[in-house]
Write the structure tokens for this entry.
Amino acid sequence: MDDIITAMSSIKVISDIDALNQVCDTLHDTRWLSLDTEFMREKTYAPILCLLQVCTESDIFCIDTLAIDDLKPVYAMLENPAVELILHSCRQDFEALDTVCPLTPSNLFDTQVAAAFCGYGEQVSYAALVERVEGIKLAKTHTRANWQARPLSDEELAYALDDVRYLPAVRNYLADKLARDGRTSWFEAECAAQCRPASWRIDPELSWQRLKGGARLPLEAQEAAKRLAVWREKQAIQRDKPREWILGTSALLLMSKLNPANVDQLQRIEGVHPGFVRNSAPAILEILKASPRERGRDPVWINQAALDPTQRKRVKGVMGMIRATAEETGISPSLLANRSMVEKFIRGCTDIELFKGWRLEVVGQKILASFS
């Protein structure tokens, strides 16, 4: 296999489809793969997958994803339920992989999720876990590397491979602790949820839910903001540009509030540049014209509307119960529920994760009983 694997010094870099096929053939019976990706997205909407690092029971190598058009052989392994995928904070990695070929993983061990169940906090870093488990302090010298550049230096490749080299040891350490604490089933349920493509794919029709500041708009302006957010997301996807490059959030909110009726009024809004007016004014004005603006209409961001004093007191009480339970169990409070979820419950919604699966058993039943 070495004769068709490009070697940069002692570092294996697979940059040929024949080499990729041979590697995947040798891994046919592998039980696990530890993975990480390097990607760039400074000037694009979607991440550009630049490198896939892989560690197996017998090998460690990089796959040059910019050099290989067909990654189906490795994707077949990633979707094989018999192969455990070991990653740290998998969401962005899955998102980057998904842009090249639709991905539906089914057997995941996310070390960041496991660490949260083991008392290390919700977003503990990979470097911190490696130092804890292996006593090795990882270098941070190439955190800002240009992963699209070719050739990559030996130092950059070694840095990238360190992100998978120690994952198996971290995984085994955390798996043992999960088993001792009786939390393996909780952890597995969370990893199964992380494997759902909806957790990293953005539905443009729902992009308005992520719009910061929409809930603070007057009620009559919220429908316009919602429609503009959806338009912006679709334009960003179509043009593969960051959504803020299409239309800045502050300008979007001002448009929704001021409701310009013509090009002259539109171009007076702060943050609206001439190029945007030339290219997008007709679409924007049509969206604003078609958006209902009744003062008495229901808010679009109803789940983020202001709470009354009684509701705020109840939220505080539930959050206190969650923190107390987290302290008793030694897991991160945010794994149980965040404030947004609790506010939904206080407004009357019980179809939330807090009252499903292991969360219902650990704290949900207690919360429901306190309101009965």
